[in-house]
Protein 1
Amino acid sequence: MKHLKWGLVAAGRIAGRFATGLATIKDQATCLAVAARDLSKAQKFAEEHKVARAYGSYDELLADKDVDAVYISTPNSLHAEWSIKAAKAGKHILCEKPVTSNAPELQKVLRVVKKCDVFFMEAFMYRCHPQWKKLLEVIKAGTIGEVRIVQSAFAFNMGLQLENIRLSNPLAGGGLMDVGCYCVSFCRLVAGEEPVSCHAVAHIGKQSRVDEYATGVLQFPSGVVATFACGTQCGTPSAANVYGSKGSIVVTNPWFPSDENAKLIVSAEGKTETIEVKYGRDLYANEALTVAENLRRRQARPTAMTWADSLGQMKTLDALRKSMGLKFDCER
Ligand SMILES: NC(=O)c1ccc[n+]([C@@H]2O[C@H](COP(=O)([O-])OP(=O)(O)OC[C@H]3O[C@@H](n4cnc5c(N)ncnc54)[C@H](OP(=O)(O)O)[C@@H]3O)[C@@H](O)[C@H]2O)c1
């Protein structure tokens, strides 16, 4: 496995979390550089996270020949632009979710990534955790019978902070893009196919012009039906449940699994079993290692995000946004 030297494109909240993850695997990866639109912000971040190089523009970081791979954590609307620029600069790419604003943008990115022959993965850190492989094994073993219903939720109440990227239409924000995308990717993972019908209803904020809370339903060719709830203006416990013809599986901590709390509760035919999935890595460090482990293939293996998975995901998000009547400014 190659020891990758990482560069961070943007120095926001999640970039800090990613840098903290990288710091736990110093023998396997290095956080070499960070870029922000403002040099002093990049320098402050570099000092805090002990990053050797700080740049006052993303372009300068892409020009750094020592940077092997970039972690892009700009607002959603800028993911495509910086993925394309990074690919053209010959950098391997881990780009935050949702990987672009919409499917056509992702198709453009994939064309460039293929041409430039670099690694590219949507940063759904939760998918890199082994509990999903275990979940699919339990389903395949037939313990709960045929999968019939998939149910999930990811929502929180951040208040109406209109300056936040999550409440910005021009930056391709909204609850579906921010957290509903986890639910959608979970439903698609369990169904193992793309939905034939996607509907969502949402409260679109008058000021934010994005979905502040929403609920959706998906129907899959095999007969699996899925429902989800998401939002940035309503609190709800996280949920990821699979109901089959003979039983059910509850994923106790779907979106932020850790060694202490990654459990599958499998109930079938009057018996309940709890399966703990331990692996001893930081969630974000694991994501960086997933890149290094699959570098030569240029994309991840399932259950992490493959290119096809990301494309199916973006098409589903597009269909859900269409049904809730939400267009981003960049799509007008
Ligand atoms: N996987 C996860 O666990 C997870 C969690 C949270 C968020 N995310 C994703 O990560 C991305 C960033 O989220 P975040 O929570 O880190 O947001 P954030 O704290 O607001 O950071 C966003 C960064 O984007 C940069 N940026 C560039 N152009 C901008 C513009 N026009 N307006 C505002 N910011 C701009 C800013 O970087 P500089 O000022 O530093 O240049 C800012 O630091 C989003 O795509 C989000 O979906 C993923």
Note: The first strand starts at residue 4 and ends at 9.
Protein 2
Amino acid sequence: MMTTSRRNFLLLAAAAALPACAGTKKIATPGVPLSPFDEDSTADEVLGDLDLTGKLVVVTGCTSGIGFETMRALAARGAWVVGTSRTREAADAACKSVPGQTTPLQLELSDFRSVVDCANAIRSINAPLDILICNAGYLGAGGAPQLVDGIERHFAINHLGHFVFVNRLLGRLYMADQGRIVVVASRAAYTSAPRAGIEFDNLDAHRDYEDRRAYGHSKLANALFALQLGTLLRGTRITANALHPGVINTEIDRNMSRFMQTGFAVATALGYGKSIAQGAATSCYVATSPALGATSGKYFEDCNAVTIVGEGHLHDAEMAARLWQVSEDLTREFLVTHRGEDLNDFERAARKRRE
Ligand SMILES: NC(=O)c1ccc[n+]([C@@H]2O[C@H](COP(=O)([O-])OP(=O)(O)OC[C@H]3O[C@@H](n4cnc5c(N)ncnc54)[C@H](OP(=O)(O)O)[C@@H]3O)[C@@H](O)[C@H]2O)c1
């Protein structure tokens, strides 16, 4: 009989490699400019000769894989990049290893106190925030559910941690000429998530737990988060979009068995995937392309906005609104009210100037 980890690997690999799951079709999203880039484009190619001097950027999960390459490519264009890791030492090492202006910070997304502390450290920079890339991600391979304060771990880290983080930094994004929120989701949002979408009655994973399903569930939450941000931020200068970076052999498989890691490496080497430079391209494109100044609430693959037709809940506005409400209820004590009672001097002065 096949072990759970082998079965999970095969399902993950299949979900990653297939063009789309049966019953779904991918079409270009109407109303979004087509980009000249595709699945082969790299982060450096999509950024071209853009000058990002004076832009403040935050990249969560900057120590490896897509986040590291995203930070490197943006810093190389003159952006000031704040890069985060679960440990300050790893963030330090990653930031030191790329040319340009970078600042390392500690962020543990499963600990909302740490999320608040990290956001406050960014607010102490006293500058508008131009780009916030929610890139950090967790993929478990334990076969049994793990909980963070009663909530399934993938959902808590990949979605709720970033939900709190974005909420605490919205004020700074408002100050930017054009603030951008980029949420690195995954096509697992429609290939591996539960058929019913977000399982509001199963956030503690008391039934039907599988790692890939829980990961897909959290990635669907990422995509719906960007969709609802797009709705709530309509009429402001902030945009929010989600994306699938591609299938890339990074450290995302760190919790898998040696067998699964080898299989993932072989699958990506055989061409079922992208290089890390290509994997960071969609993040960099969505974060910076002048063509996307008014594009919000959309989902991107291979540097273009796509709509998944058929099965899945990627574009389910009702589910996105409910997810927002539930996420707020679950994290309320860590959120700012935006009424202004916890503004610092810089923020208070900026708000006064605006009034
Ligand atoms: N690779 C793929 O094929 C693929 C496909 C679809 C989507 N994605 C998504 O792409 C994003 C980047 O993944 P990757 O492939 O580059 O993986 P990676 O190499 O494992 O990088 C993940 C980053 O997230 C950070 N991180 C992990 N757990 C965290 C936590 N609890 N709190 C804060 N930070 C945490 C890690 O930082 P430290 O370990 O230093 O703390 C690391 O820098 C993820 O959101 C992933 O879901 C990847």
Note: The radius of gyration is 19 Å.
Protein 3
Amino acid sequence: MSNVYSPLLADLIQALQCLPGVGQKSAQRMAFHLLDRDREAARRLARSLESAANQIGHCEQCRMLTEETVCRFCRSTHRDSSKICVLETPADLLAIENSGAYDGRYFVLMGHLSPIDGIGPTELGLDLLDARLAEGGINEVVVATSVTVEGDATAHLIAALAAKHGVKATRIAYGVPVGGELEFIDSGTLSRALLGRRQIETSPEEAGL
Ligand SMILES: [Zn+2]
């Protein structure tokens, strides 16, 4: 394909294909749109990507994406610090937040247990969660991992970690479809899922903690 495009165009089309679900055809369409129709938007996109890639990191308390050391969810003085909701992705956090049914703190795993991909407790930041639970003041861990084999395994490990600190762990379940990702579930269903959360029965010994 590279010989039909000029070098810069080939680079751009190649670069756009880093996006999920974007193949060569879509990338070509995006490139032509930006170059033919909206050069200003193309420049804005370039500046925005540059700033975001250089400046956005992870909140040192909850691991949410933010350009600040501590994100606004952790800084807020209006939230219930006795609850902490553990989720897999920043998109899941926003879905729970937008449901309006939760006002506690958050912890973002940035994935789920997946031994095949080398993702274990360390990669999920569980030592940081362990430290937060050790500080005290939390009396419920609301687990909102996905309803998949990996999400279930992750939920059990989190529950065992909570049990180690004598903290109750609950899991949202009601209405969340099997294999469902939180970000694609509507707010009403998510609100009911939060209200219908159930306690996870486990012990630290069960998870070898
Ligand atoms: Zn935070």
Note: Residues 99 and 188 are 7 Å apart (CA to CA).
Protein 4
Amino acid sequence: MSTLDRIRSDFPILQRQVHGEPLAYLDSTASSQKPRQVLEAMDAYYRHTHANVHRGVHTLSEEATAAYEQARLRIARFINAASPKQVIYTRNATESLNLVAYSWGRANLKPGDEVLITEMEHHSNIVPWQLICQITGATLRFVPITAQGELDFPALDQLLNERTRVFAFTAMSNVLGAINPTAELVAKAHAVGAIAVVDGAQSVPHLHSDVQALDVDFLAFSGHKMLGPTGIGILYGKRALLEAMPPFLGGGDMIREVKMTGSRWNELPYKFEAGTPAIAEAIGLAAAVEYLDQLGMDWVAQHEREITAYAWNRLHEIEGLRVLGPGPERRGGLLSFVLGDLHPHDIAAVLDGAGVAVRAGHHCAQPIHDHFGIPATTRASFYIYNTHAEVDRLIAALHKAKALFEF
Ligand SMILES: Cc1ncc(COP(=O)(O)O)c(C=O)c1O
């Protein structure tokens, strides 16, 4: 059995049909599918171990706490965090980015300060900064992108200055596929005394991520895009920054002591984990990173590079089709495109009829679509389980859509 066949046999959902056709799932950028190893880890936890964590002295609570903390350790190792205390469980990348914006931003930003983000950000790395700039009086600035759909580096160098307190950017665009040079961008931020906040929602599932080598101050990502369950995300942060930050949400578990006159906070990471956490989901995410590590992130990246290059070439066989963003050598495993003046929703509906699942819309990144003067795109995205044959089915269905709408 080939590696790809073995991987596919681990994903029960890939056996199903859609409209009488085998499912070709090309929407992993929105959310990936889950291998049985993740499903079984969560099932086993609920069947044998579940109780609330950090609160009980009984056996189940102690076992649940141990599994929950073991999962944190496993995830810390996956991104090479120096300590599991720097790995905070959140609901998703969105919550991780909000946590930084609100907690760090409220304590550190003031009028005259600048927050720098880029035109290629997902809304979750735009809106929290807009909100915190409104609250603190700081100014939000955007790094523009080039005609090729990559960061405009000369403009970035102009925009980064001694007033810049935060540079927040995506490591990989969920629309353009562009892979940004994270280490270089972090160094640029540090050179002007700013902190670097990295949106790793698209990079961590697909590329080897070493937070210490990259020297990121914060890294946000979501479990559900990397074979894990929904409802769990991670915020990694540098210890000194996390220690100095006030809590984000208040409630149980995040306190050391509560008096009617005030409260004192728990140590890291619990200071940022108010309330009963997503225990099964943390365990599921640890199983997901175990799965990715066993494959090896080099294999993951290589597989995606190959399939993306193949899809890039095949898509360009279709007259009137334009892919947004850089060439296959400088992008991750996703391709957003326009096809003549066909509406992406019409395209996606025809593809769905052929069992091919793609995304249509603005992909929560309206500014980048505004940049190109288009309201929406169709996006095909690839992960460890996708095959060349699925790309061929995408192409055949696109020809069908084109013929159907006759342009
Ligand atoms: C680049 C990027 N950042 C952030 C997010 C937000 O992820 P979530 O919805 O899991 O919080 C996404 C999701 O598509 C994304 O692609």
Note: The radius of gyration is 22 Å.
